[in-house]
Amino acid sequence: MNGNIPLAERLRPSSLDDYIGQRHLVGENGIIRKMIESGRITSFILWGPPGVGKTTLAKIIAAATEASFFTLSAVTSGVKDVRDVLEKCKAEASSMFTKVRPILFIDEIHRFSKNQQDFLLGAVEQGIVTLIGATTENPSFEVIRPLLSRTQVYTLKPLDIEDMETLLRNALTRDPVLKERDVRIVEKNALFRYAGGDARKLLNILDLLEQSTSSGETVVIDDATVTEKLQENPMAYDRNGELHYDIISAFIKSIRGSDPDAAVYWLARMVMGGEDPEFIARRLVILASEDIGLANPNALLLANATFDALHKIGWPEGRIILAECTVYLANSPKSNSAYMAIAAAMEAAEKTGNLPVPLHLRNAPTALMQELGYHQGYKYAHDFKGNYVEQQYLPDALVGKRFWNPCDNPQEARMWQRLNDLKSGN
Hints:
This protein has 426 residues and is α/β, with parallel strands linked by helices. The protein has helices at 7-10, 23-26, 31-38, 54-65, 79-94, 114-125, 139-142, 145-149, 161-174, 189-195, 199-211, 223-230, 242-256, 260-272, 277-292, 298-313, 318-331, 337-352, 367-371, 410-424; strands at 44-47, 69-73, 103-107, 130-135, 152-155, 183-185, 219-221.
């Protein structure tokens, strides 16, 4: 009977001791482990690629805290389904026998509409449920801001080689079916490459190898056998797997490196592989600021226009818009000075704390504030030649500190020269 249940389900861990991966969250000092040990679970969203243990972790938390566990899939659930399950959670939470708030697990929470997320918001605010969401997409783009502000977001990572070695070892020594088979491991490169950090995919491949080998024969794990059994092109694009991350990385690096041919090739791979066009467009907007920035401010305008145009034009014509933007950005001069400036400023703010705003920069809408010296001595830049006047704008502790340093390109050279001319009175 065990053989009829998929291997991934047969090996699904039921406690943190058996859970593989995500040591930053469930390790000795991991925040989720500490929550479980304290018995106080707050609402949060698990963000990560498929097959890294989001659903399993939610079930472990519910079991460890003895909380009632309700689930919804955003793919198949409507507003009525959300309302119905929240009513059950409310009844459960109000019961005198309930010690822990019910846990509501929402798979693919990024697919929920705004109305559905609004329903969840009220339940979280009122303490009716502890919400655990799971998503493969960036919650910043897909989850409404009020819900995000009431939940923590924890990032899950693909399994590393050590994790996959452990998973493979557990499968061969603990699974009741595989334990009875003669399994010979010759090579693991193809197995781990196809799995791509996805535990479910690795176990599914093992399942396939076992089931496709006759009883009594040795189950051989080597690169040739894995490739043959899967009958896949190892270069095929998997929008939910490792190649999703590898190809978008190659795409970004090609644009950053000013190689339009490579950039448009990787774009083609994503287009043909069925990647979400908005995902590509968002990355182009980010890149336009991070890697091109002030060297060509029009890049951000074009990238943003590309994102908007996708909504108006749709698919498949949208691929042309993405290609135009990709080639333009790859051919643009590059600068990361704005990216470096905000990073340096945030680091300074973190180290120095809440430094006070100089009095002359503060507005003085009341008589008391005027008496305290607010706004006194402020010089209105437009009253001076060139709309510029020398005065202190940084907090006292940071006077003279520079955060923006121009990169070597004509646009920023002109900006830097203009600043120097203003300061020297030219």
